[in-house]
């Protein structure tokens, strides 16, 4: 799955245990104004998971920080710095998305109503087509029955018999 990158948020991997959000902020502030710094915690140990995110106000600052800090050393560890992918939480129309599951509730309900309306219209159209076909079949049957009646009448009509014989003779 090809996810768009966030050009002003950087993923910083390879953080030493001693590095906290304040130290990470200090390491990246020379490249520009920072909007946010996060180091996600491991729920079991309550320590960061050796990576963090630095969000700059400007994309150009993030690009400069990535160029300069990728492969740099901080507290004895080599950093890996890349553009961050959007946060992935369960939910949304696409399964994994950057919004909570309820964020698309309105569009989901709207789509459900549209689908129900389409199904209702298709059912109406199908019923109308079936009724038209049945009417056509009845009309064709009546026409065939009418032709047979005319033939029978013609066979029993003395004037029609005389006309037919005159046409054959002439």
TrEMBL record:
The keyword RNA-binding applies. SMART domains: RRM. InterPro entries: Nucleotide-bd_a/b_plait_sf, PPIE_RRM, RBD_domain_sf, RRM_dom. Residues 111-138 form a coiled coil. Residues 138-170 are annotated as: Disordered. Residues 8-86 form the RRM domain. Residues 138-147 have a biased composition (Basic and acidic residues). Keywords: Coiled coil, RNA-binding. One of its GO terms (molecular function) is RNA binding. This is RRM domain-containing protein. It comes from Escallonia rubra.
């Amino acid at each position: 799955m090809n996810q768009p990158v966030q050009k002003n948020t950087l993923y910083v991997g390879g953080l030493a245990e001693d590095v906290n959000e304040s130290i990470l902020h200090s390491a990246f502030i020379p490249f520009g104004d920072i909007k946010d710094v996060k180091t996600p915690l491991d729920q079991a140990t309550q320590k960061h998971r050796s990576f963090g995110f630095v969000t700059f106000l400007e994309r150009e600052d993030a690009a400069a920080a990535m160029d300069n800090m990728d492969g740099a050393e901080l507290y004895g560890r080599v950093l890996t710095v890349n553009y961050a992918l959007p946060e992935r939480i369960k939910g949304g129309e696409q399964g994994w998305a950057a919004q909570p599951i309820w964020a698309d509730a309105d569009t989901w309900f709207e789509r459900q109503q549209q689908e129900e309306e389409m199904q209702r219209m298709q059912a109406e159209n199908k019923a109308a087509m079936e009724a038209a076909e049945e009417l056509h079949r009845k009309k064709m049957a009546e026409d065939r029955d009418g032709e047979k009646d005319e033939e029978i009448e013609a066979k029993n009509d003395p004037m029609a018999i005389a006309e037919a014989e005159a046409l054959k003779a002439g």
